Amino acid sequence: MSGRCRSTVWMGMVHNIVAYETAGSLLGLGMSVWQALATVVVANVILILAMWVNSVAGAKYGIPFPVLVRASFGHQAAQIPVLIRAFVAIFWFAVQSWAGSKAVGAVLGLLIPGWAALGDVHVLGMGLNDALAYAVFWVLHAYVISHGMERVKFFELWAGPLVIVLGLGLVTWALVAAHGVGPLFAEPSKLTNGQFWHVFFLSVTGLIGVWATLVLNIPDFTRFARSQKDQVVGQAIGLPGTAIVFAVMSIIITSGTIVVFGRPIWDPVELLKQFHNPVILILGSFSLLVATLSVNVAANVVSPAYDLINLFPKKLNFVKAGMLSIVIALFFAPWLWFDNANTIFAILGAIGGTLGPVAGIMIGDFYFVRRRNYDMAAFYSRNGPYSYSNGWNFRALVAMGIGTILSLIGLFVPALSGLYAYSWFLGVGAGLIVYVFLMRPRESVVALSQASSEVD
């Protein structure tokens, strides 16, 4: 794949409605623009460091996540983290579909008289107009899946840049409407010092949660790298750079809505409606729709579809698995919670907390247990060192269970609610430490102390 193709695919992955709304909603939590920008930068720095650490094995051995995870979990138990990753991808499909359906609804609202009145009729917790728009967008995904990936491949090369053009247009509007940069950055924080730090860590964890799946399956990408240097440089340019730029644009635009409308509008479709211009609304909505369709099928259908095929190879092919994935996605019901900034980050924290222990176990296995050396043949052998007990490494499952409990305990125990802001970090740390100690009880302390000395 050429450098141009790689960069545009990354743009298509990063530049989508959910990424825009997640960054913009930081202002909805009461942050100032400067606080929101700092939160985005910190989250992306932590994210890229975690990806670098977990990407080395993929580049070194040229094998993807579902195979690498066998070393720590065993051939059979490895299906559990793979299945968790699949369901998280399906969850993101549901969220992206709901966000994209708003663009569909905006266009239909221009074409169909009385469309807004349908919102007075409620179906499954949403207005009938929203339900119809969601159904239309869902059927569009089903059509693409049923005809294979060739239908959207050409979208991936220009969907991201198209959204950037739209974003730059909205940034220009914000600067003009606010009469310069000053007013956009002058809005004070609505959080006290104590409140800010709690919201800051919760938001950092939530922003990491958006890409927590990629921390796990980054070997799926780096296994094609020609060298470790290439994969490190490629990630540094591809993800944090584009993600930070896009988040900055979102925050500036959302700040502009505060100046102009007196309230933060982090929903880009809702913002487009405020211009009361059919041309702007149709072109903008089309850009968002294409970008969402591109990232949703490529990132959130292909992966779980192949994971499901791996589980049921005799019963499923790509089309059947893809259709099953998007049917399951309906049960996540994002229309019930996605429009609330606090709920967004609470759920993102849960995702990070669930995936964090698996990342910690993989990192602990590669660096501390295996000392960066895997037995390639053992990945494909039922009787090798990664077979454990009939394919099950129960120590990895215990570590994952303890890590998950610690990462999510603040969500269920009110007295420990403050811990929930650190869910991903607790999950990674607990998964790594418990796994290393269970796997190498005599040498784990030495391994961890040596690693600490090297870092110092």
TrEMBL record:
Q: Which Gene3D superfamilies match?
A: Hydantoin permease
- What's a single GO MF annotation on this record? nucleobase transmembrane transporter activity
Arranged from A to Z, the UniProt key words for this protein are:
Membrane, Transmembrane, Transmembrane helix
- Report membrane topology: Multi-pass membrane protein
What this protein is called in its record is Nitrate reductase
Q: Where are the transmembrane segments?
A: 33-53, 73-95, 124-145, 157-176, 196-216, 237-261, 281-306, 318-338, 344-369, 392-413, 419-438
Alphabetical list of PANTHER family matching this protein = NCS1 FAMILY PURINE/PYRIMIDINE TRANSPORTER, PURINE-URACIL PERMEASE NCS1
Q: Where in the cell is it found?
A: Membrane
Pfam families noted in UniProt: Transp_cyt_pur (PF02133)
Taxonomy, superkingdom: Bacteria
Q: Which family does it belong to?
A: Belongs to the purine-cytosine permease (2.A.39) family.
What's the source species for this entry?
Answer: Kyrpidia spormannii
